[in-house]
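Re: the request from the purification team.
They wanted to know what the chain is likely to look like in 3D before they choose a buffer screen. I agreed to run a prediction and write the result into the notebook, where they can find it.
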Amino acid sequence: MPTGVYVKAEDRHFIFLQSGLAGWMLRYVLSHEIAHFLFHSPSQSIFAIVFFSKAMRRKNHLEAEQVAALMLLPPRELEFVYEFGADELYPEIAQLARLRGKIIRDFGI
């Protein structure tokens, strides 16, 4: 059973979370679903049914997992993203890490 789901129906966006989630798992699942909203929203049908190939569903899931991990990564750990050469290997992840660093600096979150 999924712990969370993002759907778009009739131009409205919804994130549903399992009621028993708490603490770190609640933040992780919410971050994962927010990533689907940010990156995969146009691909949802008006009936909230996804018509993806298995490979596309896996790609979307892995992208959401990466974004959720970066959203929850402690600020000092963001430096390791650069130390391991993320700019060359994973430019999108490095860009997200820079954005997360800017948000931390500007807003303290």
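For the purification team: The chain has a mean pLDDT of 78.
Please add any questions underneath this entry.
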